[in-house]
Amino acid sequence: AQSVAQPEDQVNVAEGNPLTVKCTYSVSGNPYLFWYVQYPNRGLQFLLKYITGDNLVKGSYGFEAEFNKSQTSFHLKKPSALVSDSALYFCAMNYGGSQGNLIFGKGTKLSVKP
Amino acid sequence: DAEITQSPRHKITETGRQVTLACHQTWNHNNMFWYRQDLGHGLRLIHYSYGVHDTNKGEVSDGYSVSRSNTEDLPLTLESAASSQTSVYFCASSESLGGVITGELFFGEGSRLTVL
Prior knowledge:
heterodimer, A: mainly beta, six-stranded mixed sheet, four-stranded antiparallel sheet, 0% helix, globular, B: four-stranded antiparallel sheet, 50% strand
């Protein structure tokens, strides 16, 4: 079955340090992968996507993600975390099935401390 | 600017009452979705539509219904509200290519529903 997993409920990082939010997926075909961010009391906002091509994808607010087919992962990264990056992050996958809808992970809460 | 709006933003109702959450988008997107967000579950798909007069059940559709009479609107109705339907509801819309979503979803701000 198709699925998306975010193994960490929460990630704590000091401001200025690099951050990684992990995502793994399970799919029988080629996935389309997305990262979304949710700030308190707001809707989700698109950060970046991988459809095809270069495995390193750059997105909004200095975030990037690396698609690794052999490890079935799509980890979100940022070289230097900001306090304002503190939010809930969701990984999502569209496997191109007949429904064509996104499957979301359960979310990872990122906390960046000054 | 194009946008997607939800109303009401907050609603308190009683068990057994009918509730309708409105969603209106001005992106002219064919695809519209309703999700619910619960702690520990992330986002779960309730219903979705690929165009006017098209509606489909998602992962957690029991107790919910939608109708799509035009491109802009996809109202979500709880026929007889239950306490288990207390949640935050998000509407979203997107473009698609050949039925496969390759672009971003645009989300509304959410509707917080409490069923007492």
